[in-house]
Specification:
4 copies of one chain form a homotetramer. Chain A has 8 helices and 18 strands. By secondary structure, the first copy, chain A, is of the alpha+beta class.
């Protein structure tokens, strides 16, 4: 089940230390111009080594398209792409090939498949998210065509929170700093925390906020495939994601209906809108034309440089000290991944809705 | 897309004020004994009118099975069931047939389908969750066969939180009170809050905690169909759900890796387990044999008895005062629904895993 | 896997001698007027007992809709329907409850599910096709809305073939006789053969031809989901179907390219059409705007009234003589089923095509 | 919808004159040893230029695996593979870039996607079948593991038929001649016909027979996903396929029940088997443990070297004479493709059946 989506679908393949990773996008409408610079830019934002804070591993992440594009435009045929793995350094991993690293997938994959690719996480490495970024960037290009935009940014690192609502932020600043937080002052504080955490050989979690704007009302399916249910599924499938909220999210649990309800009104263009947006743009599972606003919580990266107790495949208890290269915080790199997955979900729903209206 | 699941699937139908609601369960293993009392009990726990707090609407929720069961056991054929709507009182709703009730689905459904069933929510009524309870109860019976248990309970109502970890609670007490909180003292405080809220004509949100125990390691798919991604999708598809967490959830954002990592050890039965369970039983998307622990946030019910501003289908602004019967808090009734959906997800993954191991 | 279709989907349930059969149609566009008379008429054409030739079992086949229709029109919500089984006579079957009837599903179902519903075929009875007729009739109503028509008729019974091409037949005569053959003279000969076969306690096979007209060009998916591949799947899923052809079908194997190719020309309306239609309306898996023409072969019904050797569940060899009520030829009753399934496939492809064109 | 299968799935990509074709196999069980020689052999059997009869185009068809295999065995992760296009000669096609070649997909693709890849069929070229051969060969390796074999052979070319039943043939001789017919004498006659047809600049159709042996009873789904319905779908999705039969197929239409029924008996190993196999190994949609026997009809290749009338994109009528390289008969090359698709369907059903038996 390495395929995501129902009408706009993509299938992912590849291991972090194998030959290549890549994917096949199926169901993309034809005639969409491919903006290679945009895709490359989003990939660059995802890859490690982009800042002083992140892992030192250099992944040029050059995407090569193999099919589905002719004379610069999508043809409607499957779009296959490959990103070759160059800087693999599998040897880094050989020393702990029998060890189940705490809170990594080594153990669970071993149980599931009866084997484990000890070369650095294999399939469950965050490197797979590059595939999502390519597929999602193409979804973003289709959405852009329709006037819909998707944005994400870091709103929390450790205990440092950006409390200003997104509507008061200049989201064009997000990618101007390594933290991917549009408020420069807060970004600096987050950066310092990450730096401090790195110095201590530790890691830290964080939160990414996402916003989808200009979405038509009427997207989402009534019962199981609610817009936010699919969005939640998409977000929780990102490596290290641990929580999802739409609108007020967990805060809604402590609210009264009289506080939470969004009153309808007619805006100056004669459109039905709500005065507040506690619902986060989704009511009864279907978009209402307001901005879709959601948040995704990420746990701290499991790779820390402190001694940890663990066990081996032969059930021996050992002390384990990690040596290698990793990020103190995955959250800045998750921003383009959140954008990609949100775009894929949105386009899928748009296509589903077109199918059903004769 | 009114079907849930991949191998253990169910399809839901029916409107709250139509003839009936019901569903078809497809892919259920054959030879499972049907415990009608258990299904009836779970349905009873879901239905409104079960306590003094909840809505006054009486829904006997008698489920009638039409197929797939022969001599008390599942046959492997689709299991269809119907719950007839008896106490409909559609007239309650006629007075506001042109009004888009704030934070209900009236408006979004109208845009999506070009029509609206004004008889009380139609398809987006929480009444549909009875279908989930029937299907999920049958999943629970299959799981029970395999020694796996699923439990849920109310852990927050408004600002009253149950802070004791589930391992220190006696979960068999959950359904002994109307709040479905296993700590009687906290349950009483929650009850008082709900009562108070009701008196004020208002509603309040809350949180349900879920636990899946005795699950084998190895369930869940590697990338998109991570165990907690599908679980999140299932939970967020429940009416009024606004947030989902696995393990530490949003708290993980403020933690360090050295705090969050779960060290492996060998337990007295020679099994690989973790000393802590910050991961909530899922690592890299796959179960690790520890309890799966998750939380779902619910918003306050949109139906309040205070005057609200809204608009009509003809884009007139009106003041709206609701008259009818509803719960001040949906969370107690959501408990069996959370159990049902968690069981459905779990059984689906169990079946997928069997398929792939030759 | 009792669900058919991708966007226009229906899920079937029920056993021939259980309480009821029925289905849930999901994904049907909203606003379609339901023509109950048409559905009833198609059901009547399918049911046994409609002619002197067919089985004596009386199945009134009264369909009751439970959801998805409001004020006579589809709402976009799932359309559930039930047909209760009235004339069941399960006792007819009790005498051979341990016997695997030759060429029935008794044995294969027993192996598959570990149980067998001895009450007359249970799930694999042709009675299930009533569900297809209801769902397909609704698809036909949607197609009619778009000007597309679906027709089928009997073109062979035993060795009696109707050799006149469909374009020279008056298809409105199909349902005027019990054989469902639009050529009255040939229909009479077929009728006599069926009558003769019945007298001998035997059964006979036949062929149904189907035609879809006014279909737009461009429907069908490029590689695996070719229009005729899905159509073939749909037809071969009908009880007793043994072969499928599109266009020239098996005859094409003995043709030369110079005979088989369809030359393009511009018709008087300026449309691109082909001079001949050896392709049967589908080229490279996609409709070309010509009529889609296909044929389905059906085997003789397995229930014959002659002594047959078989074995029991306990592996005893026995002689078996069937006593009961059945058709000498299933093909006339298959006609509305072929129409239903063809309509479902066509509508599904129409919806898929709408989704992908922005 | 370029994905085939439900549990054992593969997604195909690539155009015949683009950079590459390839695929991603998802859901393959882990621990299966990859026999590269076998895959290469099957690919060689499919590729054109393998005999004097076939097209002169040389396609080395070297498959490169990018993922999912570690130390020679499948890991359970997606298996991606690429076959680069080397001998493309797109210029051959430029001369008729605006012409809709009769009975090719040029027109239907143009209507569907609003563009056409004039470089030789693009996506609808039979070159895509190489992807099926790779995926299906891996399915065959898994099946071999379980003792199940899949074979196909040419049983008709033009009007020359091999009338001997498969049980009297030595199927190991199939690939010893260019025609892929296990009866050498008949193969020679077929070869002469193909040669003659080629000399005349024409093409001819044919039939491939397939046999699946050692299959357990109990595979196949009851209603829509009957074993032979999925098999039919798989076969009809192969380029140029026009008809499908299981067991007696269209001949069954002219048979009586007393001729067609397969009597059960107990074989010397105490197993339930049938004395005859008119059913072709499938009863009521589910395998009965006998050999599955089916036939697929292929039309003559559309590319002939005689002048043909057609139209251009600008709706001009033109005479068209093809110049290029193609086969006089596609049927010999279809043999490994039929084997591949049959294996994929079989493995998929095996996995589905494992899932449902607890």
């Amino acid at each position: 089940m390495n395929t995501f989506g129902r009408l706009f679908r993509f299938t992912s393949f590849g291991e972090s230390h194998g030959k290549a990773i890549g994917g096949v996008i199926d169901g993309c409408p034809s005639g969409i111009e491919i903006d290679y610079d945009f895709i490359t830019e989003q990939l660059k934002r995802r890859r490690p080594g982009a800042s002083k804070i992140a892992s030192l591993r250099k992944e040029p992440d050059e995407v090569e398209f193999l099919s589905g594009i002719f004379e610069g435009k999508t043809t409607g045929a499957p779009i296959a792409f490959v990103i070759y793995n160059r800087d693999q350094r599998s040897k880094d991993y050989e020393t702990f090939r029998d060890i189940f690293r705490p809170s990594h997938g080594d153990y669970t994959y071993y149980v599931k498949y009866g084997n484990v690719d000890y070369r650095g996480g294999g399939r469950y490495s965050a490197r797979e998210t590059a595939v999502r970024v390519v597929a999602g960037s193409i979804a973003m290009l289709v959405l852009k065509h329709l006037g819909i935009t998707v944005n994400a940014y870091v709103s929390q690192v450790g205990d440092i929170k950006l409390d200003i609502p997104y509507s008061e932020l200049d989201l064009s600043l997000t990618y101007t700093n390594d933290v991917r937080c549009p408020d420069t002052a807060v970004a600096n504080r987050m950066y310092e925390l990450m730096h401090d955490v790195k110095t201590r050989g530790d890691t830290v979690g964080g939160v990414v906020t996402g916003i989808i704007r200009n979405l038509p009302a009427g997207l989402g399916e009534p019962v199981y495939d609610k817009f936010h249910a699919r969005l939640s599924y998409a977000m929780m499938s990102i490596n290290a994601a641990r929580g999802f909220e739409i609108g007020e999210g967990f805060s809604a649990a402590a609210m009264y209906g009289s506080q939470h309800n969004d009153a309808f009104y007619i805006n100056e263009d004669g459109q039905i809108r709500t005065l507040t947006n506690h619902s986060g743009g989704v009511q009864a599972g279907i978009t209402n034309g307001m901005d879709v606003v959601f948040r995704v919580a990420f746990k701290p990266v499991a790779t820390i440089f402190k001694p940890q107790q663990t066990v081996t495949r032969n059930k021996k208890t050992v002390e384990f000290v990690y040596k290698g290269r990793h990020d103190p915080c995955v959250v800045p790199r998750a921003v383009p991944v959140v954008e990609a997955m949100a775009a894929a979900v949105t386009l899928d729903f748009l296509m589903l809705q077109r199918a059903v209206r004769l």
